[in-house]
Structure formats: structure tokens, C-alpha cells
Design a protein that fits this description.
The chain is globular and about 65 Å long. By secondary structure, it is α+β, with helices and mostly antiparallel strands. The chain starts with a strand and ends with a helix. It has two domains: 184 residues, no CATH class; 58 residues, LysM domain (Membrane-bound Lytic Murein Transglycosylase D, Chain A). Helices cover 18% and strands 34% of the residues. Helix 4 crosses helix 5.
Length: 244
């Protein structure tokens, strides 16, 4: 299944511009697939992508019944890692400097093993997470980057480029789990009213009031007993807190 997200356009123009960013992390220790290591650096988008293409494929197996003309009901055998594709537009014509080249190099660096991982073994690529406003992607690695330079200075230095970046989820889900897990985790927004508490929001969102701390951390709330009525809080998606 492939889903393409497009930018909202005029309605969001009046709101504060949120720039997309890809954050690179050190890969976890061998055997760890739950949480990335230390943050390495951020690749901040100069211009937001026009589209995000998200693909997710499930594995199904149909058992053929003996002496039957039709095969059996498809059985879910797991899901392939989710894939996210996006374009990055880079332009340095304002000062005709080398910032286009530097950002392309940053993107290319996401495809090679980190120095720390090379010391310990064969090497692993950095883990990356794509974020844009209230959207937070799944922990992934960059499987490929293609850069197309479209404008140059008289001296031959590239000052404009379009890069295609493909991200792949670090791991898919084992058989029997929800095949929609691992998609972009879009945070919900909730306006606080009388009677609301972080525990009640956590129960409504996750079915478990004990997960209220994730909502507190997402909103920098130090005292959960002092909530301001009428204020809006972000509620992270369940996929986000599970990966975090």
C-alpha cells in the first residue's frame, strides 16, 4: 500500500511555518531495535517537501485446501518495513555560496556507517527520524539519496539541487501484529476542558492511564496537577511512544 501526502497549501500559510528536519542518531548496540543512540546532527530543510510518499506492504499466505477448487482465507504473516520517499529542494542562489553542496554532503553521509559503529564491527548506518510539525516518522535508515544539480555559477559550482531521499523502517512487525504500525505517527491535539487530566487523556488515547508521562514530556508539563483550561496539548501517537 502506498499513500502520498501533499502540503496543505493556503490554509496553513497563515500559520507559523514549520520546517521539516531529519535527525540522525548513532545506531544502538548490537541486538537493540527499540531506541536509537546519541543524536549526531540534524539536516534542516530549507524548503518543505511538496509530497511524502509512504509505502507499506503486508505478507499474506493462502493455504490451498486439498480437493478444493478455491484456496483458503489469507493468513497474515507479518509486514514489510515501511518506506518513506521525499524530495528535498536546495537553493543557495541568494549568496551564490556553497551551502547547496554542504547539504547534499550531509544527506549522502546518512547512507554510510557511523565512525563509532565501524570501530565495533562492520559498521551500521545512522538511525534517522523525519519530523515535520506534528508529524514524526518511524525510526529508519536512509537506503538511498539521489542528487540532481540544476543550476551552477559561472565557475561551475552547484547552487541549486533536488534530492530524492528514501527512508526504510529499521524493522518490520512480526506476524500477527497490526500491519498499519510503523506509519507516520501524527500527534493529535486536544483542548483542555473541565475534568481533563493527563491520566484521562492517556486512557482515551492509549487505553492505559499510566502512560500520561509521555503526554507531559511532549508538552513540557512539569506539574500535571496544574493544567490550564482552554490550552491545547499534543498527544503523541501510540506508535511514537512505543518507538521512543
Amino acid at each position: 500500500m502506498t499513500v502520498t501526502f501533499t502540503s496543505a497549501g493556503a490554509k496553513t500559510a497563515a500559520k507559523k511555518m514549520e520546517h521539516a528536519v531529519i535527525t540522525a542518531y548513532e545506531p544502538p548496540k548490537p541486538g537493540g531495535l527499540q531506541k536509537p543512540g546519541d543524536e549526531l546532527y540534524k539536516v534542516k530543510f530549507q524548503f518543505n517537501p511538496k509530497e511524502l510518499t509512504l509505502a507499506k506492504n503486508a505478507k499474506w499466505q493462502r493455504q490451498t485446501q486439498p480437493n478444493a477448487a478455491k484456496s483458503g482465507v489469507p493468513e497474515f504473516k507479518g509486514a514489510e518495513p515501511a518506506k518513506l520517499a521525499l524530495e528535498v529542494f536546495i537553493d543557495s542562489t541568494k549568496d551564490m555560496g556553497n551551502s547547496t553542496i554542504k547539504m547534499v554532503e550531509q544527506l549522502f553521509n546518512l547512507t554510510v556507517p557511523t565512525e563509532k559503529s565501524r570501530v565495533k564491527g562492520k559498521g551500521s548506518p545512522p538511525w534517522v527520524i523525519f519530523e515535520w510539525g506534528t508529524i514524526r516518522g518511524f525510526p529508519s535508515y536512509v537506503s538511498s539519496v539521489t542528487a540532481k544539480y540544476t543550476l551552477f555559477t559561472p565557475g561551475g559550482m552547484p547552487v541549486r539541487a533536488v534530492c530524492t531521499v528514501n527512508l526504510e523502517e529499521v524493522s518490520g512487525e512480526p506476524g500477527g501484529q497490526n500491519p498499519t504500525s510503523g506509519a507516520l505517527a501524527a500527534r493529535d491535539q486536544h483542548t483542555l476542558t473541565a475534568g481533563d487530566s493527563l491520566q484521562s487523556l492517556a486512557y482515551k488515547a492509549y487505553g492505559n492511564p499510566e502512560l500520561w508521562r509521555h503526554i507531559a514530556e511532549a508538552n513540557d508539563i512539569d506539574d500535571p496537577m496544574r493544567l490550564k483550561l482552554g490550552s491545547t496539548v499534543l498527544v503523541p501517537a501510540l506508535e511514537e511512544i512505543q518507538h521512543g
